[in-house]
Amino acid sequence: MASDGKTVPQQKQETQPSKEDVMDRTPQFTSPGYKPSNKLQGKVALVTGGDSGIGRAVCHCFALEGATVAFTYVKGHEDKEAQDTLEIMRKAKTLDAEEPMAIAADLGYDQNCKRVVHQVVKAYGRIDILVNNAAEQYKSSTIEEISEERLERVFRTNIFSYFFMVRHALKCMREGSAIINTTSVNAYKGNDELLDYTATKGAIVAFTRGLALQLVGKGIRVNGVAPGPIWTPLIPASMGEEETANFGAEVPMKRAGQPSEVAPSFVFLACNHCSSYITGQVLHPNGGTIVNA
């Protein structure tokens, strides 16, 4: 926590996707205490929105655990973040893993998702782990402020892409594979200023539960992670300076979490040795907020 009592310094970014490298207090994608143990050795993982924030931390943990990892990013907005993440992963990858890959794509459209899956399978032969993580959010004080264009944009990125990615990736996934969807604590407690975003996150919870039932017979597990307030580039890009400075103060732990504190949940759900009897469930790294189904 900052010396003035704020959880992070005041700051604001004017565009989405936002920039991780210009944030005051860069999000922590790794923890010195994390000890990998080859949980994902030999696996091929595809992470959407993997260039920064939670996505970067997940990519890094997966690489440490032995996976070959591809991730998506938004061209022209996240080019530097994507290159930085590639370098991070190259340093983390194990000797038997293949080179990581960054793919530029707007995942709100089916053909783009099909192309991403094709590139990954062409390079690596299959997909064992699919992480649907790409998201965007915008504040509004009333429902009247949410235009049809914005509503469609948020739903395309936050939930349409999950449908599209799964539909194409399934052709290349085999028994023992895992799908992990990023939702949010807002799906459970609501958020009056992020109404469209919150609606998509609720849809992701329902999508996860339904898809898990649909795929259980194929031996493919489907689960979710619902982070609470996590310090990522999305925060200064979608909130005011004062709200950003106090971000996370409302939870019992009185602070925002770091991406490095969320990524192990994805490792757990991706690893069959850890979570083989878990499907249709959601993990809650949220700083102590009590969540009921």
From TrEMBL:
Keywords: Oxidoreductase. Signal peptide: none annotated. This is Glucose/ribitol dehydrogenase. GO terms for molecular function: oxidoreductase activity, acting on CH-OH group of donors. It comes from the Eukaryota. PANTHER family: NADPH-DEPENDENT ALDEHYDE REDUCTASE 1, CHLOROPLASTIC, NADPH-DEPENDENT ALDEHYDE REDUCTASE-LIKE PROTEIN, CHLOROPLASTIC-RELATED. It holds the Pfam family adh_short_C2. The keyword ATP-binding does not apply. CDD domains: SDR_c1. Belongs to the short-chain dehydrogenases/reductases (SDR) family. Residues 1-37 are annotated as: Disordered. InterPro entries: NAD(P)-bd_dom_sf, Sc_DH/Rdtase_CS, SDR_fam.
